[in-house]
Amino acid sequence: MATTSGAILAGxxxxxxxxxxxxxxxxxxxxxxxxxxxxxxxxxxxxPGLGIFSETFSDARVQHAFLLTGIITICTLVVTxxxxxxxxxxxxxxxxxxxxxxxxxxxxxxxxSPVTVGVMVVLLFGPAGWFESxxxxxxxxxxxxxxxxxxxxxxxxxxxxxxxxxxxxxxxGQDEEExxxxxxxxxxxxxxxVTLPNIKWGLAYGVALTxxxxxxxxxxxxIVSGAIQNQTETATTFVLFALEERLDSQAYLVALxxxxxxxxxxxxxxxxxxxxxREQTR
Amino acid sequence: xxxxxxxxxxxxxxxRPAGSGGDHPVLFGRSRSVRIRADKPDRRLGRQAHACNxxxxxxxxxxxxxxxxxxxxxxxxxxxxxxxxxxxLPLAIPTLVTGVMxxxxxxxxxxxxxxxxxxxxxxxxxxPGIMLALLFITLPFVLRTVQPVLLELDAGEEEAxxxxxxxxxxxxxxxxxxxxxxxxxxxxMLTFARAVGEFGSVAIxxxxxxxxxxxxLLIFQLTSQLRYEEAAAIAVFLFTVSFVLVLLTxxxxxxxxxx
Lengths: 282, 259
Description:
Structural class of chain A: mainly alpha
Radius of gyration of chain A: 25 Å
Distance between the termini of chain B: 58 Å
Shape of chain A: globular
CATH topology of the largest domain in chain A: MetI-like fold
Order of helices and strands of chain B: HHHHHHHHHHHH
Number of helices of chain A: 13
Strand content of chain A: under 5%
Largest sheet of chain B: none
CATH class of the largest domain in chain A: Mainly Alpha
Order of helices and strands of chain A: HHHHHHHHHHHHH
Number of helices of chain B: 12
Oligomer: heterodimer
Largest sheet of chain A: none
């Protein structure tokens, strides 16, 4: 008997050791891989002193870059949120031929390298592209201008709202909506009073992810915009070129700012995720 | 009008500390076709090394992603929520910023980087740096595919295994791991697909040397030289690879959830 309990005790001790080792390894990996670079950029960016803030953000080029990033992000958010909800609704409520295909297509941007997206748009609107004659007829500058930059950013951020909302809508079922309908609510009323409050956390999750993706997009935007200073240079492309031009301290500070914004967004993402799962399990 | 680039974005690396004589970055000017042909083997080498890098990335991620998922699901400890949030950081941080962060930490500008430099270890503007960037960016993929499966797993089977006298490792290998395998494989494939197409961070940490030119970087260089056909060819290839991988992953994960 004594030996058995001894063996159990030994086993418990062993498990505790294993637990400590696994836990330590996991924390160590995350700390070295993710936290250390974050500390590194903060140290390097802030080393010149706090004066670098006013110096960098009073620069017209930096201001313009951030303004452009803001415009692109807002356009992207409006479009992907509206259409994302419509697509998510269609995918979870309707049955139609080609639904599987549509489902797969909605995930396509996850699979495509942003650089590839940029090349696709250039091939469509660029010299000898399919839409070139149409574009030159209307006189709108698409390539190397805002429209193409918004277009690629939208393409890249399409899946986030859809993937945030679809599972919630599926989980929700149609009972409440049918009840609203029976009680005489119009489709719009039922959407705004019944469906929207139910999907709000899923939607918030998708919107937050979309924002961080749109803010940080570089590959596709770089190819279609040409990153012309004070015209089509976004915050991320500014960082890339500032490093090339040896404006290191400015580049590091702008990168740090973008990182800080993403950390704030990440907090939002996590809150939305937790609220969402809590409401689902309730 | 707008088609000319006033600057050659990724061409500035030759005056960086990384430039070692023979390495010529992007090639503009008259002799460019000659030079491009001249460095072709180097570039092919670059792409092979990149494929290898992405493969390693998938394997390392499979290991540590599973470990992280296991720790986050099975152990209760202070700071668990923080660790879980941190693991999502790569989803939120712009990949270009990831590259800048790594360059700041391990590059010559930081004390750590200069110490490494004097010890003869070069991480940035070389393959290890690209590897670090890819690992950073793809960290959540395996974790987030394995975690839900692990949560659903029946604890009874594990307890039975322990009661039958199996130790922790045997239980993990015989009971837990088989259930997780499809999710780990799927996550690793997603990792690979993402790593192959990665641009932002690699553009920074590669230093744009021919040796470290990955396929997306090459596409960008070609488009900035207005060589759209060649760029499109590589883009189609890249697209096919990642699309097939994503389709396979979906199939794998669907089958796993049906069982």
